[in-house]
UniProtKB/TrEMBL annotation:
PANTHER family on file: CARBOHYDRATE TRANSPORT ATP-BINDING PROTEIN MG119-RELATED, GUANOSINE IMPORT ATP-BINDING PROTEIN NUPO
Protein family according to the UniProt entry: Belongs to the ABC transporter superfamily.
Biological source species: Bradyrhizobium lablabi
Function: Involved in beta-(1-->2)glucan export. Transmembrane domains (TMD) form a pore in the inner membrane and the ATP-binding domain (NBD) is responsible for energy generation.
Protein name: Simple sugar transport system ATP-binding protein
Example of a GO MF term: ATP binding
């Protein structure tokens, strides 16, 4: 059984409170199978008071499954859960909540039309006594202050930014009595400044003796914020390490059973660089649409063999820009040219047939149908490529997709499995394998490494730079400035649907690129 001790002064700065007593939560001998797949085989895992324990592991390692068992969402096939040293049956999230275990999922469960207060109040129905509105409001205000959760109780949730919604989720759980909070990839959807806010809240919770389970793929976050790190591989917790003794290299070795070999470096920028524009937007504006962002007077050129990065806080028009290029929305004014032809009114099918690939920001919502099988999802949007009379040539599709998975170095999922049963990262891999299977000439990639483990992230980055070397044009949208700086030949900042700055590699610094991302220091020399 892995053993470890608390670090003396926690990395979050507050110092680990020495609350003593048994762990808040323990898992012993937990086994969970899905058919023949052993998703969890956990000898031991525990969460102590006043600590952040990170749960790390490659895509499909079993992290979410363990979290869902602890939260009563899945029933384990075997094993025992103890809460404060006592054996407990947790058969539903309701049981878990009654025992002080809360979980914040990747997809929030708030009701957009209701106010913050109503959302929090609705969740409190498990409390033993009916709480009066005034009491709950007072407690809400006090908890918000203590845990640095700035939330106006009257504001409708739909008006909140993603980071604010996440904090309301945390508030809701804490008010309902959670002492253990499981956060499933909480920073996956957050902008950098929102991450800082989340970590401040986590620090306050930790200082008050809460136990936090942080599931993440971001090693820097783990090393900055966790007291202990549990590493999972193929359903097992293979080690629990103290942060004081942990290193990035050591964690990668534990996750991937050995050193992580860097993928071969692509040959560099292709000779085709500088040719005629693959995509040219000329003064394009669009309507906002329901809840969306209007694009305003966008002029962007992308040439073959070029990666143009789009920096910006999510929600500033990235999704709409992707949809515009794909033909899912049309310019109200201005022109969209693809390979020199006016493509403003082209259908999505035509755009895709011409060689445009799309990696959208939310594979579950925008690129996959969860109820369909992996194979059916791999056929989505492939147009006439696999048509054989009235049917589809599934064999050809299987062969192409198997090759694409192999090229990407991703393990091939069962093509018959329903997409809904895949882990988040594995579903993202399916979208990538489909979109990159046929050497696209223009790749529109929104947050393409979101939710991927370190190895898959390296592969995807190498693949995009490799596509550039082969003459493809890439539009890379990301909130991760390190990723953008490492990969882009040029960087545009998107703010409220307009270009707020353009930067060459010599100016790739967060002090320079960061301000226009939040509307400060607006550059007028936009593309
Ligand atoms: N409901 C389900 N039915 C069938 N298989 C499932 C189900 N839920 C998860 N799995 C499988 O269990 C394995 C572990 O999945 P899990 O979601 O726990 O991984 P993870 O470590 O959280 O991955 P990621 O980092 O990609 O989110 C995967 O192979 C996944 O396909």
């Amino acid at each position: 059984m892995p053993a470890s001790s608390h670090t003396e002064a926690g990395p979050l700065g507050a110092g680990t409170p020495n609350t003593g007593g048994p762990p808040l939560l323990e898992a012993h001998g937990i086994v969970k199978r899905f058919g023949s797949l052993l998703a969890n085989d956990i000898t031991f895992f525990d969460v102590r008071p006043g600590e952040v324990i990170a749960l790390l592991g490659e895509n499909g390692a079993g992290k979410s499954t363990l979290a869902k068992i602890l939260y009563g969402y899945y029933a384990a096939d075997a094993g025992e859960i103890r809460v404060r040293g006592l054996r407990k049956e947790i058969s539903s999230p309701r049981d878990a909540r009654a025992l002080g275990i809360g979980m914040v999922f990747q997809n929030f469960t708030l009701i957009p039309a209701l106010s913050v207060f109503e959302n929090v109040a609705l969740f409190q129905n498990d409390l033993p006594a009916i709480m009066r509105r005034g009491d709950l409001l007072a407690r809400m205000r006090s908890y918000s202050k203590r845990f640095q959760i700035a939330a106006d109780p009257r504001q409708p949730v739909r008006e909140l930014a993603v980071g604010e919604q996440q904090k309301v989720e945390i508030l809701k759980q804490v008010l309902a009595g959670a002492r253990v909070l499981i956060l499933d990839e909480p920073t996956k959807v957050l902008a950098p400044q929102e991450c800082d806010g989340l970590f401040r809240t986590i620090a306050e919770l930790r200082a008050e003796g809460f136990g936090i389970v942080l599931i993440t793929h971001k090693l820097r976050e783990v090393l900055d914020c966790a007291d202990r790190i549990a590493v999972m591989r193929q359903g097992r917790v293979v080690d629990i390490v103290d942060r004081a003794t942990a290193s990035q290299e050591g964690l990668l070795e534990l996750m991937f059973e050995g050193a992580l070999a860097a993928p071969p470096r692509p040959a560099g920028i292709s000779a085709q660089h500088g040719g005629a524009a693959v995509l040219a937007l000329k003064g394009v504006s669009t309507l906002a649409g329901a809840g969306g962002t209007a694009l305003r007077d966008l002029s962007i050129n992308i040439r073959p063999g070029e990666i143009v990065g789009i920096a910006g806080v999510s929600g500033n028009g990235q999704r709409e820009l992707g949809e515009l290029i794909l033909g899912l929305r049309q310019p109200r004014t201005g022109t969209k040219l693809l390979w020199g032809e006016d493509a403003s009114r082209w259908s999505t099918a035509t755009v895709r047939e011409k060689g445009v690939a799309s990696i959208p920001d939310d594979p579950f919502a925008l690129a996959c149908v969860p109820q369909l099988t992996v194979r059916e999802n791999l056929a989505l949007g492939t147009g006439g490529r696999y048509r054989a009379g009235l049917a589809l040539d599934w064999q050809k599709l299987d062969g192409d997709m198997a090759r694409s998975f192999a090229k990407l170095g991703f393990p091939r999922p069962h093509f018959e499995a329903r997409a809904a049963t895949l882990s988040g990262g594995n579903l993202q891999r399916v979208v990538l394998a489909r979109e990159l299977a046929h050497d696209p000439k223009l790749i529109v990639a929104l947050y393409p490494t979101r939710g991927l483990d370190a190895r898959s992230t390296m592969t995807v980055r190498a693949l995009l730079t490799g596509a550039r070397a082969d003459g493809a044009a890439v539009l890379l949208m990301s909130e991760d400035l390190d990723e953008l700086f490492a990969m882009s030949d040029r960087l545009l900042v998107l703010y409220r649907g307009a270009i707020a700055g353009e930067f060459d590699p010599a100016d790739f610094r967060s002090e320079t690129v960061g301000p226009p991302m939040v509307g400060a220091g607006r550059h007028s020399d936009a593309a």
